[in-house]
């Protein structure tokens, strides 16, 4: 008896933002394409999407034209930008094959939820909303919480969010809030690291650091003279290949701290700067106990140049900050090379979780994370990372983790506990979690 043929269906994924910087929606598209769907992925292409998407025969990316830069008052600019986005999104939707469903992310609610709802109403497709956060809570950061635009955004989210055929959200706290206050039913889909975020062997770390030496000067050794007569074949600030070809950590290597930021007002980067100021003073006072610290900050955003200027004015001797541009395939590997991660994200709604921490955990990197309402759904203080409320606590955590680095015997037990918990976290990856959580919902539509 022959197996029944697999039915190929069409699905649409809408990202009213940069596709390359929307990992969760990219993972949705990838998972759909790997099952039985032909996927139309609509969004802006400001940075390179995943290779798995651009090379897939089951995924077609539809590039939206960005809103032109106009010198307008903020409210007027927001209105015109929303109209532009609504028109370009509608044109893109009309151009695709009728999908079984449209999966869109919120935020932004304006105009995404409105346009997608109207399109689905006309084509009799299903609308699915993936709730990452709330549009109105993000707008309230930079404007009056009870202002006109915030109230309009909230009304649209309430009205159109209820009309979705299904929904997903990122935390149990958000699921409860959507149900209790919005009458919206949503299934919790926790972010999980994809397979490219994993611990890597020292040999692979050395190869990456050797290659990045070409663009990040701080990864170069402070001097080659000490290795002239030792037979060392290759050396970075952190690692070396000895005469017999074995890769080892350098005994007095610097520590690497890594943070990924969107350089936006909802991530107070000044907190990290202040924490590094304290670390600088400690390490100058007790240089035998605190290593040179190389702080890697990745990401793009509107406040990046401002903080780069702030850092340049610092006269730090024991702290170096670099803001490199990394290839997509290098970022997971660099996470695996770091000694400590820092997450400055605090939720505008108190209901979402930072995906960057998920990636760090996937790579085996413990994290110091800003404390907010539901962060403990991801970070458990002392078990897989640390939580801080202010820059003093952040500085204290960095100092304790790096004291007598890298051989602080007093931290042996805690490191073992954290490493074990991170290994357990890594057991469930995005693909398995998506099949377990999302597929049943899609099949029920």
UniProtKB/TrEMBL annotation:
Bilayer topology term: Single-pass membrane protein
SUPFAM superfamilies xref list: UDP-Glycosyltransferase/glycogen phosphorylase
Catalytic activity: an N,N'-diacetylchitobiosyl-diphospho-di-trans,poly-cis-dolichol + GDP-alpha-D-mannose = a beta-D-Man-(1->4)-beta-D-GlcNAc-(1->4)-alpha-D-GlcNAc-diphospho-di-trans,poly-cis-dolichol + GDP + H(+)
Pfam families, per the entry: Glycos_transf_1 (PF00534)
Annotated Gene Ontology cellular component terms: endoplasmic reticulum membrane
InterPro entries in alphabetical order: ALG1-like (IPR026051), Glyco_trans_1 (IPR001296)
Transmembrane segments annotated in the record for this chain: none
Pathway it works in: Protein modification; protein glycosylation
Annotated compartments: Endoplasmic reticulum membrane
Alphabetized UniProt keyword annotations: Endoplasmic reticulum, Glycosyltransferase, Membrane, Transferase, Transmembrane, Transmembrane helix
UniProt domain Glycosyl transferase family: residue ranges: 251-404
Superkingdom classification of source: Eukaryota
Chief location bin: endoplasmic reticulum
GO molecular function, one term: glycosyltransferase activity
Protein name: Beta-1,4-mannosyltransferase
Organism: Culex pipiens pipiens
Phylogenetic lineage: Eukaryota, Metazoa, Ecdysozoa, Arthropoda, Hexapoda
